[in-house]
UniProtKB/TrEMBL annotation:
Family annotation (Pfam families): Ig_2
PROSITE patterns, A to Z: IG_LIKE
Ig-like domain residues: 28-145
Protein's name according to its UniProt entry: Ig-like domain-containing protein
The entry's keywords: Signal
Signal peptide: 1-45
PANTHER family assigned: BEAT PROTEIN, BEATEN PATH IIIA, ISOFORM D-RELATED
């Protein structure tokens, strides 16, 4: 009771008189002053909570989830962690033990490494992907509660090599370059991008090829490339094509092929011309020799 009516005083209709008692049996003056000061200073009802969870983690890895808070000198009552709507970890400093876990994630919580700010999950599996929430509450006299949430993906990383296949090894100006890039299966499927001579490829040059599902919910990613060559396409007579596949910040692989420009063989053309000239010169010499021989024979017969 914050106050009690004094039965010895007359009470006008619609009013109540209170006798304040600054004793342990009455209203705690210090509590009232604390509430008034908090309200005047603007801190009542204001606490800061920040949740830090990786956007994605690899399957079977260990995850540190952090809940930072500023209670502005108010005492902490509890820190609770939820996945979706299910509480799985609780920290209450006044209780013994101060840390508690709850199914279905109780076996995944590393109690020795978890505390009032951090909860550690071990051997994370695909079904642990989802929305996580941290809820912080202050103790008496304010009893303020605030929560923040964040989503975490659990990734089954691709296993194997990234492969690039092109239609042919040489291309001439005006040709259409065609090829595809295949990323090994993963969950989620890898995102594929292309560069030509270190420059990003226009999206209109990329062909969408349906992905293929394999076992254990993993998917193979395939991306095609198709564009026409112009004089600016080649760099020093070569075309450097790179395929890149990534999954969040956890997987990043590249594969590169170098294609040569197909040009006319100037040396062969010159050689052909020289050979033709040599043959023509030889024929002329032979004709002249035969003509001279014929004139000599005719002169003798006369």
């Amino acid at each position: 009771m914050l106050c009690a009516q004094n039965p010895q005083l007359p009470i006008p209709a619609g009013m109540a008189r209170c006798r304040w008692q600054a004793t342990t049996a009455g209203c705690p003056v210090r509590l009232l002053l604390l509430l008034v000061l908090a309200a005047v200073s603007g801190t009542l009802g204001e606490i800061d909570v920040t949740i830090k969870i990786p956007i994605a983690v690899a399957e079977n890895s260990t995850v540190n989830m952090t809940c930072e808070y500023n209670l502005r000198n108010m005492p902490l009552y509890s820190v609770k962690w939820y996945k979706s709507q299910n509480e799985f970890y609780r920290f209450i400093p006044k209780e013994m033990p101060s840390k508690s876990v709850f199914p279905p994630l109780s076996a995944k919580v590393d109690l020795n490494k978890s505390d009032e700010h951090t909860v550690v999950l071990k051997n994370v599996e695909a079904d642990l992907a989802g929305k996580y929430r941290c809820e912080v509450s202050t103790d008496a006299p304010t009893f303020i509660t605030r929560m923040e949430s964040s989503y975490m993906h659990v990734v089954r990383l691709p296993e194997g090599n990234l492969t690039v296949r092109m239609e042919k090894p040489r291309y001439a100006l005006g040709d259409t370059v065609r090829g595809n890039c295949t990323a090994p299966p993963g969950n989620p499927a890898a995102n594929i991008t292309w560069t030509v001579n270190e420059l990003p490829v226009n999206s209109s040059y990329i062909r969408n090829i349906p992905t293929r599902n394999v076992t254990d919910n993993r998917t193979i990613s395939i991306a095609g490339l198709e564009f026409e060559l112009v004089p600016e396409s080649f760099s020093n007579g070569r075309l450097r094509i790179t395929c890149r596949a990534d999954v969040f910040h956890l997987y990043d692989e590249k594969a590169t092929v170098v294609l040569d420009e197909e040009r006319p063989r100037l040396a062969s053309v010159l050689g052909t011309r020289e050979s033709s000239h040599s043959r023509s010169s030889g024929a002329s010499d032979a004709t002249s020799w035969l003509l001279g021989l014929t004139i000599a024979i005719l002169a003798r017969t006369r």
